From TrEMBL:
<keyword id="KW-0067">ATP-binding</keyword>
<dbReference type="InterPro" id="IPR044574">
    <property type="entry name" value="ARIP4-like"/>
</dbReference>
<dbReference type="InterPro" id="IPR001650">
    <property type="entry name" value="Helicase_C-like"/>
</dbReference>
<protein>
    <recommendedName>
        <fullName>Helicase C-terminal domain-containing protein</fullName>
    </recommendedName>
</protein>
<dbReference type="InterPro" id="IPR027417">
    <property type="entry name" value="P-loop_NTPase"/>
</dbReference>
<dbReference type="GO" id="GO:0016887">
    <property type="term" value="F:ATP hydrolysis activity"/>
</dbReference>
<keyword id="KW-0539">Nucleus</keyword>
<keyword id="KW-0238">DNA-binding</keyword>
<keyword id="KW-0547">Nucleotide-binding</keyword>
<dbReference type="GO" id="GO:0005634">
    <property type="term" value="C:nucleus"/>
</dbReference>
<dbReference type="InterPro" id="IPR038718">
    <property type="entry name" value="SNF2-like_sf"/>
</dbReference>
<dbReference type="GO" id="GO:0004386">
    <property type="term" value="F:helicase activity"/>
</dbReference>
<dbReference type="Pfam" id="PF00176">
    <property type="entry name" value="SNF2-rel_dom"/>
</dbReference>
<keyword id="KW-0378">Hydrolase</keyword>
<comment type="similarity">
    <text>Belongs to the SNF2/RAD54 helicase family.</text>
</comment>
<dbReference type="GO" id="GO:0005524">
    <property type="term" value="F:ATP binding"/>
</dbReference>
<dbReference type="GO" id="GO:0003677">
    <property type="term" value="F:DNA binding"/>
</dbReference>
């Protein structure tokens, strides 16, 4: 943006990386040397001074006095045994590569890992669909071979190139409170209380996370021409004994259902965001199954859904229905790209970000569907992150980059929270 407003003001891209990006990045870790820290502080000071005449920044802090309070929580979810088994199979045999090269497709791999973290059903249903396409010969003819396509995720035009930029070029977003919740989510009945737990169980790092950005350490799986369009072959053996449509197969899903029950009991409407269409399908299936097993006069969940296939008229109708407090609606499910911007959902004050988006600006926009002018109740945001997986690593990178942004643009003091080795590892 600076180069657009004032060409070459900060030099060429290579000069900018050498002069600012590399030294500032090297000084952001707990294990950075004293020399790296001194150089990072000096370059950050120089960059802040150079940007001051060009950048005028006004964030939402100026609106806080006119809005109700907002609390943001990060709920650390465990992998179930089924998820852990499938995730290990993915690390051994399913990490995708770029075309015919040996370079790891980090973005594609992330969305596969994310699908496993959300619910094994997402992988299994997508696997069955791809098997059917491959059997019918549609796989070779279709262009929908990419990971983003098979999981119903639109390409947001992200210009992040992990092979050239390294981990420091991931955009950022963090939270004000972080906690680890057990799968049964005990204690959620006191839903408005602050969460102060800081401990993470030993299981967080149980799974191997060793592949570095841009590395070729992952052995390239042998692919037949037909298999190139089928990225989920690693799940074949897992599916032989897997029983689908089980709430207990996903740590996130168990916590979600507990959270929905509590929100319903206190009379708050919920907005659920996910970037994956199959994930929304799984959430909808879990809610529908819950409703079917409720007693005759028990309260059931009434929900709406907006995704990329929703027509404009249905979209407006569902938004109006959700915002009408006279309507019997408990929650609305929205795909991040289809409904994360430009709509008003002030009737809901409980926002659930079910998965960490690669571009955290999408998650920030999603939160603002509820936390905006017109909101009269305190807003609670719950971000689900699965520990011991790539999702947690991407979230850590986001926190780190937000620290850089605060220091350079907002001139705020930030803490160093991660080791350099932790930030280099993604899988």
């Amino acid at each position: 943006m600076v180069n657009f407003a004032r060409p070459d003001y900060l030099g060429s891209l290579d000069e900018f990386k050498n002069r600012y990006v590399a030294p500032i990045t090297n000084g952001q870790c707990i294990d950075s040397s004293e020399a790296d820290l001194r150089l990072a502080r000096h370059r950050a000071f120089v960059l802040t001074r150079e940007l001051r005449p060009l950048v005028l920044r006004r964030d939402q802090q100026y609106l806080f006095k006119q809005l109700p309070p907002k609390k943001e929580y990060v709920l650390m979810c465990k992998l179930t045994d089924a998820q852990a088994q499938l995730y290990r199979e993915f690390l051994k045999h399913g990490v995708p590569t770029r075309g015919d090269s040996d370079q790891v497709d980090v973005l594609g791999g992330y969305h596969i890992a994310l699908a496993i973290s959300n619910h094994p059903d997402v992988i299994c249903e997508t696997y069955k669909k791809l098997e059917k396409e491959e059997h019918n010969g549609a796989c070779r003819k279709s262009k929908r071979h990419g990971v983003l396509d098979i999981f119903g995720i639109e390409d947001g035009g992200n210009d992040f190139d992990p092979y050239n930029s390294g981990p420091s070029h991931v955009a950022t977003r963090s939270s004000t409170s972080e906690t680890f919740l057990l799968a049964k989510s005990h204690g959620l009945r006191d839903i408005d209380a602050d969460i102060n737990a800081n401990e993470v169980e030993d299981g967080e790092s149980a799974l191997p996370i060793t592949v570095k950005l841009g590395s070729t350490a992952v052995p390239k799986p042998k692919r037949t021409p037909a298999a190139r369009c089928h990225r989920l072959k690693f799940a074949r053996h897992f599916m032989e004994d897997y029983v689908p449509n089980q709430l207990e197969s996903s740590g996130k899903m168990m916590i979600l259902m507990e959270l929905l029950s509590v929100c319903q009991s206190v009379g708050d409407r919920v907005i659920i965001f996910s970037q994956s269409i199959p994930t929304l399908d799984s959430i909808g299936a879990a809610i529908s199954k819950h409703n079917r097993h409720q007693r005759r006069h028990a309260k059931r969940f009434s929900f709406l859904r907006i995704d990329g296939s929703t027509t404009q008229s249905d979209r407006f109708r569902q938004i109006a229905q959700f915002n009408d407090l006279a309507e019997d609606v408990d929650l609305i499910m929205i795909s991040t790209k289809a409904g994360g911007e430009g709509i008003n959902l002030c009737a809901g004050n409980r926002v659930i970000i079910f998965d960490v988006c690669w571009n955290p600006c999408n998650d920030a926009q999603s939160m603002c569907r509820s936390y905006r002018f017109g909101q009269t109740k305190p807003v609670f945001v719950y971000r689900f992150v699965t520990v011991g997986t790539m999702e947690k690593k991407v979230y850590d990178l986001q926190i780190r980059k937000e620290g850089v942004a605060k220091r350079i643009v907002d001139e705020k003091t930030t803490e160093r929270k991660f080791m350099s080795s932790e930030l280099q590892k993604v899988f």
